[in-house]
Specification:
The protein is an alpha/beta fold. The chain is built from seven helices and eight strands.
Length: 224
């Protein structure tokens, strides 16, 4: 899996971007990089990196979260500690960014620093979600995110799933739709992500899906 100094993950609500962000950070740490993860999903109280802060820090990943994360205070505040990531050349970072205008604009605050460091900006897509189930909707989302953040999306992530009911056919369907997006936008598919234990027909998943990121499920749903 290739890494940049700054690795940004964004996507529509329900895309699974936080699960992907957390697992990407763990893979980066296990590959020998000094790793930090930033929770920039500043107005979404659910499915946050902050939910697994203790577990990540036990594994040696530095976690930066907004000051009011996991409280009843809904304030789009950004921790000053983020600035330190652009000053320490030894730290490689993952940013978990909200897929709305507020989250993307928050990212844009660090636009020049991110460009200077070198980055990949991934859009995580679950094509089983109603707002990202067609080439047109996904392309529109990419345009909106780029406009709000003033940064260019560089790669797509196929995270098509139906939770525990996901099949290899779901992944294939998502990959075909993202291939159309790729042809239309010129953006490559960075990788396909899935929880292997939840997939029926995993034995059929091969290089036809491109690079693979196996997910170890970390983000718990409210009913779990």
């Amino acid at each position: 899996m290739p890494y940049k100094k700054i690795n940004i993950f964004t996507g529509h609500f329900g895309s699974g971007k936080t699960e992907v962000s957390v697992n990407f950070a763990l893979n980066m740490k296990n590959s020998g990089y000094k790793t930090a993860i930033v929770d920039l999903d500043i107005v979404n109280p659910y499915f946050r990196t902050a939910d697994v802060k203790d577990e990540l820090e036990k594994q040696g990943i530095h976690v930066i979260v907004p000051p009011f994360a996991n409280t009843n205070v809904d304030v789009p505040a950004l921790p000053a500690e983020i600035n330190s990531l652009f000053e320490d050349n030894s730290v490689w970072s993952v940013f978990d960014v909200g897929g709305d205008d507020i989250g993307a604009k928050a990212l844009g605050r660090y636009r020049q620093e991110i460009i200077n460091e070198g980055y990949d900006m991934y859009v995580v897509v679950n094509t089983n979600r109603p707002f990202t189930d067609t080439k047109e909707k996904i392309s529109s989302l990419i345009y909106e995110l780029e406009n709000a953040s003033r940064l260019k999306v560089t790669k797509l992530v196929n995270n098509t799933n139906l939770l525990q009911d996901t099949t290899a056919e779901d992944l294939e369907k998502g990959y075909k739709i993202l291939n159309k997006v790729s042809e239309f936008t010129g953006l490559p598919i960075g990788f396909t992500a899935f929880v292997s234990e939840a997939i029926e027909g995993t034995e059929y998943i091969n290089e036809s899906f491109g690079k693979i990121l196996l997910l170890d499920k970390k983000i718990k749903l409210p009913w779990e």
